[in-house]
Design a protein that fits this description.
This protein is mainly beta and 78 residues long. The protein has one domain. Strands 1-2-3 form a three-stranded antiparallel β-sheet, with no helix packed on it. The chain has one helix and three strands; from the N terminus they run E-E-H-E. The protein starts with 10 loop residues before the first strand and ends in a 34-residue tail after the last strand.
């Protein structure tokens, strides 16, 4: 099986003034279906806020780019 590593465009799940959430579907990226995983991207605009939520699966999160002036704590709960 040949591995397709070409960039795929994410589907917009939600977009608003504070940011957006984008997903890649397993039909678009067969490697996701084969490994039984999902992929998403959360983009927060300045002064945007992501509400805490429950998920019945493990998640991994990391910050690609950002800066803070007042608060210096970033929390990840898995």
């Amino acid at each position: 099986m040949e591995l397709d590593l070409t960039p795929k465009t994410a589907e917009v799940l939600f977009e608003g003034d504070g940011g957006g959430y984008y997903t890649w579907s397993s039909s678009q990226v067969p490697l996701l279906a084969k490994n039984n995983v999902g992929a998403g991207r959360l983009v927060l605009q300045p002064r945007g806020f992501a509400l805490p939520h429950y998920a019945d699966s493990s998640k991994i999160g990391y910050v690609i780019q950002g800066q803070t002036r007042r608060y210096h704590h970033i929390f990840f709960i898995f």
